[in-house]
Amino acid sequence: MADLTEVLTPPRHRVERRAMGWWALRTAATTAVAGGVLLAGYLLITPWRPWTGPALLVVLGLGLAHLLVTPPWRYAVHRWEVTDEAVYVRTGWFVREWRIAPLSRVQTVDTVRGPVQQALGLATVTVTTASAAGPVTLVGLDQHTARRVAGELSAITARTRGDAT
Amino acid sequence: MSGWARLDPRVIWVDLARMALSLVPLFATTVLFGGELTGSVLWPAAIIAVTGVLASVGDLLRWVKTRYRITDELLEVRTGLLVRSHRTIRRDRIRSVEATAKLRHRLAGLRVVTIRAGDRTATGEVASLRLDAVSAPTAEELQTELPAGSRTATPAAGQVPGETVLATFRWQWLPYNAFTVWALLSAAGLGWGAHWLGGMVGLDLFGSVLEAARRSPLPLAPTITLAVLIAGALGVVAVGVAFVAEQWQFRLVRADTPTGTVLRTSHGLFRTRRVDRDDGRLRGVELRRPLLWRWTTATETSVVSTGLGAAGMLAGGATVLPKAPAADARRVAEQILGDPAPLRAPLTRHPLAALRRRLGWAVALGAALTGLAWWLGRVTALPERLWLAGGVLVPVALGLALLAYRSLGHALVGPHLVTSAGLNRTTVVLRRGAVIGVTLRQSVLQRRLGLVTLRATTAAGQGSYAAPDLATADGVALADATVPGLLTPYRAVPATVGGVLAADVTR
Lengths: 165, 507
What we know:
heterodimer; A: alpha+beta; PH-domain like; four-stranded antiparallel sheet; three-stranded antiparallel sheet; 4 helices; elongated; B: alpha+beta; seven-stranded antiparallel sheet; six-stranded antiparallel sheet
């Protein structure tokens, strides 16, 4: 008994395959910004080249590795499920997080769509509880699914009274 | 109280006095000791004067533009000259009301009242309003009237509300709080202050100290040791005096209010502080035993309460007892909880794999630092044998790993979840009903060791409390038992596992 999967059934739904594209683009963007700054430094400040050169190579190497490894890994790990009682997600890659929150404790439900997500037809559903530990997020959902899920969640949580603390 | 009220007019006098006071150093340096007007003396005095005057003027404007109002449902504050703001807090969301007074406020009979609510702002901080300042009787009135949105009349004058004293100041606490790492730092601060004051009257304190050290008959190493010891002793005295001044007449009581009970701390010699924490918002307690002072059993006690988030904890709103011997802390914590069981129950130890994980990290970290030292020794001017320090570093890290492992433990005791972890052995007792979600975290390495970290999320305190490195099956069972039935539909083996009862599963 080592893996949590042996004692706990993972959430039912996988995320969209397109989410891999979104994760890849995000990594590419971060790498491009960090690499761009270093490249500018390399080109402009000659005396620092012994430091900026290797740093640039490291950043590009790590970025590329992250780009190739994490999206499929995340796709294999990420799962979500919403029932009448709870919202249940599994996220992460090297570190997996299984989060479950009873709907009676949910305060707000938002859908967020960044520009890249819009282009890919994806959306993120953010479910906040009263905890400062952060919201439960369902990432990489199809935008129509996301809207339906958010609607259902809002309807269920609207029925529960109290301040959910 | 209905209508809009102003802050107390005595704020103006306090401000004028502060403005006058802030000009004193400048006056003293220029007029009284007219001679040496070097930059190092004049500049700090000038900065004190300018900031003091600006702050006072700003405060005056704030007084002019601030109004507050208490209605049946809301507390409203309007303020601002350039940026007008109108902020409201719903009275039934108020979690704590705190009255503080610096020396200048006390002399003028004023109190600064801070009201914290359970809501979080967009940035995730606990919403709070400050009334700076109102008269002491008004503050008293606010503290009795505001918590929990009481709409009943305040008790008749002269009627003493009941209170149970949980702790009062004890001199035995002094050594626990005076010997801290801050002692050396505060000694340095004192030294700089003395040097600066000396400079004002034309004395070169550093110079004379250095001169004395040079003439000292002792060799260099003992001289430095002696100097550090003297500075440390001075620092300990300074920190000790500061502690006594801050905690003077410390009282922790559970007091009755018209709508329930509050945990009330009050203390202070020059700067007084009184915090009321609504008992209805209490979710648990936290006991922290810092590693360096473990041998003295020194323990810090704080409450886990909604509306006292991370920011409130930094401001000290959650701390209900200064560092004290474990026996005192435990007695107070048990009384706060109203149930001695959670802190007396034996904790379930975590599997040996958790020790392996810690030892592994210790070796990896020690090896990495040794490697870094070796590399630095080769490429920089640092001594080449620096990496030999690894021979000390690795055993120390292994010892710390063992200590961290020995801190680990968990238990379910009636309505409470008890977790213990960390180098500063932090024990958290959390009401199970306050757990609003569960996170199970497993890295690839934890998976290989068969471990899982359980985090119970809650609206109170830090937002989540962890039980690190449980055996995988136990983690799931503990989570399921903490919030009955939450994980049951997803469990492959829905029975008793590893000694943790899957308690009262209702579905």
